[in-house]
Amino acid sequence: MTDYQKAEEIKSKIERGDLMLGILDKKEVDKMINLYTTSANSGNSDAWYALGMLYYIGTGVDQDAERAVSYFQQAADSGYGMDAWIKYIRIAYFADLTDIPAKTIIDLVNTLEEKDASGEVYLLKGYMFYKGYAYEENLELSFEAHQKAAEKGNSDAMFELFVYYAQGIGVEEDISKAIDWCFKAAESNNRRAIYNLGAYYATGYESVSKDIDKSIEYYIRAANMGHGKAAAQLAAIYTIGKEVKKDEKKARHFYELAFENDFDVDIFFENLGLEEIQID
After folding, report:
1. By CB atoms within 10 Å of each CB, which of 169, 190, 219, 248 scores lowest?
2. Radius of gyration of the chain (CA)
């Protein structure tokens, strides 16, 4: 078994909760990092990428944006490929890392944006123009970057276009176009868009007519994709039983799912005047 494989084995144990449960010795984390580092220094770009992911997600270690960026850069320089550079840009933006020169980010975006089939680089460029990170703030150029990302099929960019048209950000407000983009994003399995359509069908909104069955359909899709609030909405719907038949079993299932998805479903229920559902 190679050093990389040994490190992967330890990581899998951490991911399944062995460290948290005390089954795995904390010294194994250091061992995993050393094994990845040895493998990386021998020329394995996958190991550099794995180290980046450890500190990006916080697998057995504290999240550390600067370390993650450093490892992703080494992965990319070692030939890992596009995704390492995308992670580099993404973390730099979301962690608001100011030590990286703006020119470095801009040059990297210029090199990657057309090569990136996922549209992620254009999406990040749109975010950066919106916030004024690396680039000067420019809402029109932010909108244009999101358009280019959406043209590449990026569902997050499609959802951003929904938001931009709905709020008139960098473009004239157009609710009809906003809703069209929300549907397109949902068709591309964007869970935020799917949740929004569930909410629109629940009450009716502009061209979206009220339809509780469609609302539940979209909420279930979003909940099964990890959207905690969608699961909480379903738990409330089946608890109240106003427009659907009360169903304690379904209410409990979606309440538990909301909890599993790290949503404060107990507070959500309290705000609705509903009693908390006891779960095992």
Report:
1. 248
2. 22
